[in-house]
Amino acid sequence: MKPPPFDYARCDSMDEALSLLAEHGEEARVIAGGQSLMAMLNMRLLRPSVLVDIAELDELNYINDSSGWVEIGATTTQAVLESWPGLNSRLPLVAAAIPHIGHFQTRNRGTICGSLCHADPSSELPLCLAALGGEVVLRSRRRKRVLDAKEFQVGMLTTAKQDDEVMVAARYPAAQRGFGYAFRELSRRHGDFAIVALAGVAGGGRIRLGVGGLAEAPMVREWDDHLKDEDLADALNDFAWELRGSDDIHATARYRREMVRRLGKKVIDEARRCAS
Fold first, then answer.
1. What's residue 239's pLDDT?
2. 181-275 belongs to which CATH class?
3. Strand ordering across the sheet containing 28-31
């Protein structure tokens, strides 16, 4: 299919983008990489009257590593982050997840912030943001605000970003000494949407597991790191039942819950090994 008709504005400044969003409100959509947005337009799931293109805004194309955070600007592509020299040491969880995001062709165009705004519950970057306890920076003509991952990711393809706002940056907490990180994903083919994706963090006497692909947004649970194997198995079972999941053409809810139990244990064990 082809997208419905729309006006197109390539912005030369952030002020121009914010003015257009303030003027058009819910009738406008921001585009940077377009890897999710264009597909939704082609399927006519969205019918905006204007696209606000921020892809050429150099002020939003950056990776800053400071004060315990890695801040990534809104027009920074997944490929740029993937090739960033500090990725493995500063964001090892994201480094493990990025190769699962589509294919290198799509990562050349897709942006970090675009994936977060799309908020697909099976997506890797929103899951990493939730598991690490990251945050996003939103701007409008009215204000600037910072939301943590739980506040921002409110449901399937739904965020707390308002119609006149742009996500200008994502902030991922940098790796800490004595912490370990692990990521695993189950999909039918490499690059497909995840049937189940899991992100683990161990350190500071705690273990944290994030799960994508079952609920309408990434879900995270944290436990004491001194749990015995049988107690951890019970905790993972409770978590799996809480997530519930649903049946579709790819897998049953029962299968997904079982993957939370089995892969969840492997991810936590791997994160613990990395921490030690």
1. 98
2. alpha beta
3. 7-10, 50-53, 28-31
